[in-house]
Design a protein that fits this description.
alpha+beta, 2 domains, 4 strands, 55% helix, 4-stranded antiparallel sheet, coiled coil, CENPP protein
Length: 190
């Protein structure tokens, strides 16, 4: 009788070890996917975005040029979403104030990173002087579902105070990836 119990436990241990190996392989595949894109592809995508933000793109004469540019931007956006794991589902922008050298826009973003949903709301203050343009994020408000992911509330509060969106997205990506691994592991025990 005791041998049967031990055998059941040993079988369960073997099963768990196999699942851990499978999860490790899956994780390594995901890590390799991020290196799947060549440095050249990444640089081309970054250069494309820099040109758009700096206003260096030339004016288009025909609708076919606009369509080609739109397709290029959609490809770049798809690449970035696959690369980071962050998917935007909604965005809205509203100009709150506009004066000669100062513009304030209110942005709202919603999306998810792996299985973690998020919403952002912030003001983008853009000031222009003779030589440059500077932008600052103010009034940052981050909304994440509490409950299962309540341990990120301190982090969210600190990001809201600093207004550092890059830190938020980097950390969210890493945290969400590990939450997904943890979820898959604990699914076995349910």
């Amino acid at each position: 009788m005791e041998d049967n119990i031990f055998q059941v436990y040993e079988d369960e241990i073997r099963s768990l070890e196999e699942e851990i190996e499978m999860l490790v392989e899956k994780y390594e595949e995901r890590q390799q996917e991020s290196t799947f894109y060549s440095d050249e592809e990444i640089l081309m995508s970054i250069k494309s975005f820099h040109k758009e933000f700096q206003g260096e793109s030339k004016e288009h004469e025909s609708p076919s040029d606009l369509k080609a540019q739109l397709e290029s931007l959609e490809t770049d956006l798809s690449f970035l979403m696959k690369f980071t794991g962050i998917w935007f589902t909604r965005h809205s922008k509203k100009t709150v104030e506009k004066s000669g050298s100062r513009t304030i826009q209110k942005h709202r973003l919603a999306g998810h990173c792996h299985s973690l949903p998020f919403q952002l709301e912030f003001h983008l203050l853009e000031t222009k002087n003779k030589e440059s343009v500077s932008t600052v994020i103010t009034n940052l408000n981050i909304i994440m579902e509490s409950g299962e992911y309540s341990d990120v509330s301190k982090f969210v509060s600190s990001v809201e105070e600093s207004g550092n969106l890059l830190l938020f997205f980097r950390s969210l990506s890493s945290y969400a990836e590990w939450c997904e691994h943890r979820r898959c592991t604990f699914l076995h025990f349910k």
